[in-house]
Amino acid sequence: MCCALYKALPMENIALSIVLLLLLLFLLMASVTQEKNLHIVHLGEHLDHKTPEEIEDIHHSYLLSVKENEDDAKSSLIYSYKKISGFAALLNPHEAHKLSEMENVTSVFQSHGRKISLQTTRSWEFSGLHEPTQGNADNDNLWLKSRYGENVIIGVIDSGVWPESKSFNDDGMEPIPLTWNGICQSGDAFNSSNCNRKIIGARYYHKGAEAVLGHPVNRTIDFLSPRDAHGHGTHTASTAAGRRVDNASSVGGFALGVATGGAPLGRLAIYKACWLSLDCSEADVLAAFDDAIADGVHIISISMNDYNQLPYASSCITVGAFHAVRNGIAVACSAGNYGPTPSTVRNEAPWTVTVGAASVDRIFAAPVLLGNNITIPGQTLTSYKLKRKLYPLVSADQVINPGVDKNLTRECSDGSLSPKKAKGKIILCFAETGDTWEKGKEVKRAGGYGLIIASNKVEGNTLSITIDDHVLPATAVDYTNGLHIMKYIQSATRAKAYIVPAKTVLGAKPAPIPYVYSSRGPSTISPDILKPDITAPGMHILAAWKEGSPLGLDADVEKYRIITGTSMASPHVAGALALLKAVHPDWSPSALRSALMTSATLINNEGNPITDHTDALATPFVLGSGFFNPTKAVDPGLVYDASHTDYLIFLCSIGEYNLTGSFKCPENPPSPGNLNYPSVAIPELKGTVTVLRTVTNVGCRGALYVSSVQSPQWFTVKITPAVLYFGREREKKNFTVTVKMNSSFVGKIKKGQYGFGRLKWSDGVHDVVSPLAVSVA
Q: Does residue 232 have an active-site annotation?
């Protein structure tokens, strides 16, 4: 019947229906393709001479040229950056493309939401900073030399701050520096009274994240203000510049001692750009950089990174840091937590200080006593304790529910354990996949009395494993010891065990050990720059934490927490940079970084070379220049300095023109390896390569430096000249590093394989050390 009716329709009606259908499809497709997304537009022209109003008018004019009307242009502008040359706006693909083709527009890229990457009682002491003893002037004490970082302003771009923490009290601090241009922005549970002479400014940024995700801040779990609902920002801020707090510890009394930041009298400026409900948006992060520059900070600490390794012009952190360094602000960035896989390092631009994480000489020992009287070393942060007796011990695969995937029988995954079989026992679980804290919840759900977590194969020995604060008595052992416990369970008729209550132990050896998940080099974006730059404390770091939530501001929760990651290492370096800046206020960001890098240590507390989690020698792609030593860095002897123009020329040399703006690149730019960096990386060496370096004398006049080289395996290195004499302070001297492959190894080494070495200049007082990394073509 339908077919007959269809045939009866006039042909012109059929044709009209087809036309209308095609038109509808076209309109639907057009609406999809014209969907507006948040974009960051980077301009080549710097507008420093313009007022903020004039800059916004210029940005509006760009938008007006691609929008249909003035109202659309105005409503689409999300941020008008003042110190960073550009703006953030809602654009459809056609508009973004048109803007990208305009003169003075160097790049247009879409802004996405980014999750924050969780990337200090003992750490500063382990790093060589000590309180001066009473009655002792101690002229070499860096805290005294720097007046504890007094009046150096550290900008922290993170998840906000909990201002009531004792770490942010301003007792005895001087008035706020007259150079400060920032504000204390009010919002949920935060007003101007929450700022003081320690936290001198606070702002928050959410427009970018809201534009990307299409919904506002969830104010039931987050504060629409600089107040921290996460804890991460409070932790990093107090690590960089927290006040001295006696008797600080985490829940359970772990790490009890004096908590302090690196620059206890430094000032803090808080820039909240990350949210529990919205993650982080590139546009918001860039706005935070923009304000930090305008506000007058001296140092920026940013403990976040892009998930993907992006070209420089497409990374908000790289772009923001580029403009910060142009304005004389040193930027400390976390290297990322994507190790131990090679080439996972993030924030690898040469104008940033890229920081890896390592342990200190403190552990939280909770050994396992087996029924055969063998003791297995373990660590934990749980405060729960077992009654002192032996308990039945089983492995997870012995107490699983029917139907669990055979590949997950040892995992203690959610819902996998049988309460009937697990009740009253200590369970051995392997941490090949999943969150170890969740495994503790599963054991408790099933009625288990205790948990032994055997780390995965990657994490290495007991001193380098990740530990948690579990919901029941628990400890973590390394993978090898996990197999030993499994063997005991399988061989014993009735296996038993006891988890000894945890205690804080100082003086653990060896230390430092690089954090297993700290991201490794080489850089995929610019392999001619050796990254990371340096390593600092980042494992099991105690620092201030949030003390409530929007639903309970005075909740009885931990005021200090122990967490791990490169996020904890970066603010250590920011604090150290602040101390150096206090002593040397005229030093450039690159000089400050050079001082830290060339003075770093390569020796652990056993007097041996630092090794990684597998007990192998830690390479520069793991350690960077070494583990930081702020006290030595204040008097480095020589520095490798670099200007903004040097960075522009470097960008020309790698063909990254989206950040060079109106700068005219040399017709034949030098090799990117010639950037004046405190390390040398030569990827895929062919024949002989020579790179140029320049050192500046920041020590005494009349200094004579002699070079020495530990050549990378398979290569020979020559320094010319081999001796440098400095007749005056601030004198500069050039030298070259020539590298070639030993003829006996030609054709025998795998392509891309790296050899590592060291270059040292010494005057008998200062050792100025740089790592070398060379690979085979």
A: yes
